[in-house]
Amino acid sequence: MNSSCTAQKLNGKVAIITGGASGIGEATARKFAEHGARAVVIADVQEEKGRQVAESIGSDRCTFVKCDVTDEEQVKSLVKSTVEKHGQLDIMFSNAGTVSKCPQDTLSLDLDAYEKLFTVNVRGMAACVKHAGRAMVDAGDRGSIICTASVMAYCGSAYSIDYTMSKHAVLGLVRCASKGLGEHGIRVNCVAPGLIATPLACGAFGMSREELEKRFEDDFVMKKSGYLKPENVADAVLFLACDDSKFVTGHNLVVDGGFVPRGL
């Protein structure tokens, strides 16, 4: 990392990234540090991975906090400890999420599995928005909250309906929260990635990164640009976190390379 060659778009900012131990969260943590964030707090249930990422970025800049977003008290404590340690919270990237362990269609929907997924993808997201929003209001009306949605937030799905419903709910949360927090000067947006071969996605499909990218290569319009990577989404999150987007709120920024989901 050579920060001297990079515009410091987040100079002095303090950020929390949930689900920051791998995939999009890890790429965003590195991007935030590269752009001058004073403190990046990685929150995840993957303790070993989270600590490794934080250490690789640098303990002077990045720390790890174990946090299960399904437990509101843990989210509240995460926000509180960040503010107490660093004096402020400028950015919340609510990125933690999960996928179904098996195909979920309309006629065989496992409602217990559906509830577990919603607890992470919707309840956890709402808890992060709630407590980050409170901290930002208390600090004097400032801040940016970004949530991770999905391309599935604007289309239907035959075989992943619980995940698809949860991402529609994230989009609804962002639209509502942007209205409620806008009067406080707090922006709320989301990113909607297309399919990326993250560890979570590879595990869900039971494929390696190379196998997954090959499986869905025909679903991307921008074939000459290569495969969609976590770093591409991190660039979009950076835009929504910094002052380049200071008049953008309630927006769903799609980062999908023209992805047209088939067979999902």
UniProtKB/TrEMBL annotation:
Highest rank taxon of the organism: Eukaryota
Keywords, comma-separated and alphabetical: NAD
Xref: Pfam families: adh_short_C2 (PF13561)
Molecular function as annotated in GO: oxidoreductase activity, acting on the CH-OH group of donors, NAD or NADP as acceptor
Listed PROSITE patterns: ADH_SHORT (PS00061)
Keyword NAD in annotation: yes
UniProt similarity note: Belongs to the short-chain dehydrogenases/reductases (SDR) family.
Designated name of the protein: OLC1v1012741C1
Organism: Oldenlandia corymbosa var. corymbosa
